[in-house]
Amino acid sequence: MNWYTEQWSTECKFSIKYDEKLYSEKTPFQQIDFYKGKEFGTFFTLDGLMMVNEKDEFIYHDMIVHPAFATNPNIKKVLIIGGGDGGTAREVLRYSSVEEVIMAEIDERVFRLCQQYLPITAETVEQDSRMTLLFDDGLNFVKNASDASFDLILVDSTDPISVGEGLFTTAFYEECYRVLNKDGILINQHESPYFAEYAQNMKKAHKKIKDIFPITHVYQYHMPTYPSGHWLFGFASKSYDPIKDIDINKWESFGLKTKYYNTSLHIGAFSLPTYVKEGLDAD
Ligand code: SAM
């Protein structure tokens, strides 16, 4: 019997039974492994951590994309940092009002292998004429981008280890602030509040962003295959507040069918459990 096992904390592991290991490759950036099982379908891991699987990817990709569009329905220029599986780009490209999407993913092999093994996320994005795929370090990309050139930045990265580390630094968040226009929104990984190591990452990311952006919130979603299942994104903005400014009628007029996100959930997602609020505010 084959089990993929991931260490969620020093005292806790998570396992998924799989039928077949589809592919393995060590790139200059990370170890990539694809598996196929009955419960979660095809899934892939980077350096032994679950990234995307066919069964719950809709939760992550709905939640990284749609809250920003419901807050500012006029988003036209989008930068995705990371996101090599293509799922975030797929959701952004559903908005016909979007004019340009740039994805800066450090590892081209992630995208190419997802085109082959995970078409549910990667199949359609490259054909869209609004899409530019760049295989570059996200930190490097933002350093060289022009001031006020994006309406929205979505940081769809790995954890703050190895190649993903630079995407959790003050220097990176400052560059994001600079390249966002006056109404710009940044959505970024805030990790998880539950296990100590992830909660530390959550707190650090939040503190750095709060020192740079005038409006900052954290919102939650339920991700069955990420450590503890309880995950967070950060919402930082120069002018829009995701709770006060949500434009429910406009977002609903887009007629997008989503399986996880809806506008009632949007408001609830920003209401955090007490221990999470305390963890975010702790020194
Ligand atoms: N949903 C996922 C999660 O939270 O586990 C994220 C998936 S996506 C595949 C993460 C991507 O970020 C990877 O493809 C990785 O190569 C990319 N990445 C990591 N560090 C990066 C960097 N510095 N610049 C650009 N892309 C980066």
Automatic annotation (TrEMBL):
Which CDD domains has this protein been placed in? AdoMet_MTases
- Can you tell me which residues bind spermidine? 61, 85, 156-159
Q: Which residues bind S-methyl-5'-thioadenosine?
A: 30, 105, 137-138
Q: What class of enzyme is it?
A: transferase
**GO biological process terms on file:** spermidine biosynthetic process
Q: Where is the signal peptide?
A: none
Q: What Enzyme Commission number does this protein have?
A: 2.5.1.16
Q: Which reaction does it catalyse?
A: S-adenosyl 3-(methylsulfanyl)propylamine + putrescine = S-methyl-5'-thioadenosine + spermidine + H(+)
Question: Which positions are catalytic residues?
Answer: 156 (proton acceptor)
Limits of the PABS domain? 1-238
* Cellular-component GO terms for this entry: cytosol
Mention one GO molecular function.
spermidine synthase activity
Family in the record: Belongs to the spermidine/spermine synthase family.
Protein name, as recorded:
Polyamine aminopropyltransferase
